[in-house]
Design brief:
Layout (H helix, E strand, L loop, with lengths): L1 H9 L13 H24 L11 H24 L2 H18 L16 H17 L4 H27 L27 H15 L9 H22 L11 H17 L4 H7 L3 H29 L5 H54 L3 E6 L4 E4 L1 H7 L3 H4 L14 H9 L4 E9 L5 E12 L5 E10 L1 H46 L4 H23 L9 E3 L1 H11 L1 H6 L3 E6 L5 E3 L1 H18 L5 E10 L6 E9 L28 H11 L3 E7 L2 E9 L9 E3 L1
Parallel strand pairs: 7-9, 11-13
Antiparallel strand pairs: 1-2, 1-5, 3-4, 4-5, 6-8, 9-10, 10-12, 11-12
Helix pairs in contact: 1-2, 1-12, 2-12, 3-10, 3-12, 4-5, 4-9, 5-6, 5-7, 5-9, 6-7, 7-8, 7-9, 8-9, 10-11, 11-12, 16-17, 18-20, 20-21
């Protein structure tokens, strides 16, 4: 990439000793390469993609980073895809439990290990699941209903907790399914366990803040409390330690609390826990490596040790010693392995940073060596970077302009405020003609290109602008247009010579007859006068091509087309071409007649050259609106029955010096024609096939916003 950029800058051929900048196409390629290079490097760096820095010593680290990144992405994708499943599971489990109580089905009531899921507990799970599903709805009123259910669950858990702590009986047990509670032998069988009341109080509070993104992540903290209650209960059942699961919290209840905690974490707008778990950074890597071991490996090992003790295979002292050594060995190995991987990742990132610094220096040198001015600026148009070429071009030194707004030239067709507004939408700009003021107050014709600099979050805060002095380019363009006018006048001279020669011969013959015979002298002189009038008319039409005031006037396009056709009559007759005219436009438009006459002459001359012997040319004019009735104008259509334009060449016909005629023309005709039509706020379209070519020309009736465009079909 760097080689291509440098080659674009330093291999442009110019005349020895000249101060000419490279062509505009080359300048645009340069800025496109710079912006794409900068954007591509930033994207690689933000993704942790260090493949561009591999030199053989960091392959393993890169593979580990890629593996961890893929793992974090798969976790994030799984959470997004299945985040509502725990909520649906809660609601379904609650329905099954209530059905078990209603129809006295013990297994549905969760009767495991001498306990059950109370009806009030099932109701709490159902309300929590419904609240979560309602709050993920995009409709605000639906989400608000879900938020209201949160305080209801919290109050229910808080009142039950109050009963446990004070010994009061608020008769909450008999609120729901009281007619079935007599089926169980426990006293106050409908009262939920103290650990369950704590979990519901925390869950209800967290549901109120489930949609809150900023501030303290209350929903995530509440979900962690719920998961903690679930984990403690399951560990208590695993080791028969009743204190952990309170007054007979059922094992299925602990499992459902785990589902509730997961449901809250997966749907929390703050998503602090989920973000930490799925992060591709080192923190997420550490959490994924150690959390599973802490939560699952240790209890499993302890359960195995307890089983060995119950089977009298080891005594309590030796069993505990073996357990401690095993846990220490596993965690030491895991920590060392994790540390080694993290060190490798850090080394790879340090290498990437060094390479990034080197590339940044290379890019800075490239910008300083560029012959075009490169400017970095913010939304408020304050300059944050100013290249050496910009200093040479505009006169301000970097220390004079940095942090200040770039001055805008008065009466400019485009100013920097307008360009920044377009760039802020995410669009890129290329080859915008404008004017720029220099430090000494002089005005410079400039070509401006630009592109937004997108941050890692996807926003655009700064922009890159490229400015080039187009004064010489504009002078060269004007010189080309003048050259084409002279060339067009030369081509017309040959046609006019043929047209004028015929009436002059007729006048010579008529004067001879008038001198020879007295009786028809007046008749001969009248005929000679008509022939001279024809010569005068042709001469005036010819002068219109290069003696034009340049001021707009009301022009009848149909008459103008008719006049251009008269100039080429002899060429049309010589090639036996049939001209079909359909000149229906009668409305006059405000335009520069000489310039429009030149465009029509170019198109008609091309059609005559392309037409075979005995071919057909169609000339049409008609009035028609474009883009609705607000913009009216006149269509001019010129078509021929030639062999058409080669498909491979259709995209080049508007380029200067491009021609398909080997020995005729300069290749400037269509290019100049397009420049003229763009100037008049019109546009040209064309379509070509093996059966011929059609050009459509539109000119607005009055001055209108620029509609210039070219569409090849």
């Amino acid at each position: 990439m760097l080689r291509r950029i440098f080659r674009a800058i330093f291999t442009v051929k110019t005349r020895p000793g000249s101060n000419h900048f490279p062509p505009i196409s080359t300048q645009l390629k340069i800025i496109h390469s710079i912006v794409r290079f900068n954007r591509g490097f930033r994207n690689h760096h933000n993704r942790g993609d260090l493949s561009c820095f591999q030199d053989g010593s960091y392959d393993q680290s890169y593979e580990l980073m890629t593996s961890e990144s893929a793992q974090s992405q798969s976790i994030s994708a799984a959470i997004r895809r299945y985040r509502l499943l725990p909520s649906y599971g809660l609601i379904l489990a609650a329905i099954l439990v209530l059905a078990g109580w209603q129809w006295r089905i013990p297994i549905l009531r969760g009767q495991i290990l001498g306990s059950f899921i109370a009806p009030n507990t099932a109701l709490g799970f159902a309300l929590c699941g419904i609240s979560i599903l309602l709050q993920v709805s995009p409709r605000r009123w639906v989400a608000r209903i879900g938020i209201v259910l949160g305080p209801a669950v919290a109050i229910f858990g808080l009142l039950t907790l109050l009963e446990h702590l004070t010994g009061l009986d608020l008769n909450i047990d008999n609120v729901f399914f009281a007619h079935r509670l007599g089926d169980w032998w426990l006293p106050t069988p409908g009262r939920i366990a103290i650990t369950s009341s704590v979990a519901f109080t925390a869950a209800g509070t967290g549901l109120v803040f489930l949609r809150k993104k900023a501030g303290v992540p209350v929903a995530d903290l509440a979900a962690c409390i719920v998961l903690g209650v679930s984990y403690i209960g399951l560990v208590g059942y695993m080791f028969g330690f009743r204190l952990f699961y309170g007054r007979m919290m059922a094992a299925p209840t602990a499992v459902l609390f785990a589902f509730l905690g997961l449901a809250m974490l997966c749907t929390s707008s703050a998503a602090s826990v989920v973000t930490a778990l799925s992060s591709p950074r080192l923190g997420g890597f550490l959490v994924r490596r150690l959390t599973a071991a802490i939560l699952f490996v240790t209890p499993v090992l302890a359960a195995i040790e307890t089983w060995f003790e119950n089977q009298k295979l080891v005594n309590p002292e030796s069993g505990m010693a073996i357990l401690v050594l095993t846990v220490v060995g596993i965690f030491t190995t895991l920590v060392l392995r994790t540390a080694a991987v993290m060190n490798s990742i850090d080394e790879a990132q340090e290498a990437a940073q060094r390479r990034a610094t080197a590339l940044s220096d290379e890019l800075g040198a490239l910008i300083e060596a560029s012959p075009v001015g490169i400017i970095r600026f913010r939304r408020d148009r304050t300059v944050s970077n100013w290249s050496a070429a910009a200093e040479r071009m505009l006169g301000w030194k970097a220390e004079e302009i940095l942090g200040k707004q770039l001055p805008v030239a008065p009466n400019s067709s485009h100013d920097w405020s307008e360009l920044v507004a377009k760039l802020a939408t995410g669009a890129s700009l290329a080859n915008i003609e404008t004017k720029q003021v220099r430090k000494d107050g002089s005005i410079m014709d400039a070509l401006v290109s630009g592109a937004p600099i997108r941050s890692a979050a996807g926003g655009t805060q700064e922009f890159i602008g490229v400015i080039m002095d187009s004064t010489e380019l504009k002078l060269a363009k004007d010189a080309l247009i003048r050259t084409e006018k002279l060339s067009a006048a030369g081509r017309l001279a040959a046609s006019i010579a043929h047209e004028i020669n015929n009436p002059l011969e007729a006048v010579t013959n008529l004067l001879y007859l008038a001198r020879s015979g007295r009786e028809k002298t007046q008749e001969y002189l009248a005929l000679a006068d008509e022939e001279l009038a024809r010569v005068t008319h042709l001469t005036k039409q010819t002068l219109g091509f290069y003696r034009d005031s340049g001021a707009p006037e009301m022009v009848d396009i149909s008459l103008l087309v008719e006049g251009v056709l008269n100039i080429y009559q002899s060429k049309v007759k010589r090639n036996q071409i049939r001209v079909v005219k359909d000149l229906r436009a009668t409305e006059k438009i405000s335009t520069v007649a000489g310039e429009v006459r030149q465009v029509i002459s170019n198109l008609l001359a091309n059609a005559i050259d392309a037409c075979p012997v005995k071919g057909v040319i169609h000339l049409r004019t008609k009035q028609a609106p474009v883009n609705g009735p607000a913009i009216r104008g006149v269509w001019v259509t010129i078509s021929d029955t030639g062999s058409g334009i080669d498909p491979a060449l259709r995209g080049k016909i508007w380029e200067p010096f491009f021609t398909t005629k080997k020995d005729v023309g300069t290749g400037l005709g269509l290019w100049v024609s397009k420049q003229i039509i763009d100037k008049h706020a019109g546009f040209i379209r064309f379509r070509s096939s093996a059966q011929g070519t059609v050009f459509w020309l539109f000119l607005p009736s009055m001055a209108a916003p620029s509609l210039s465009r070219v569409i090849a079909g």
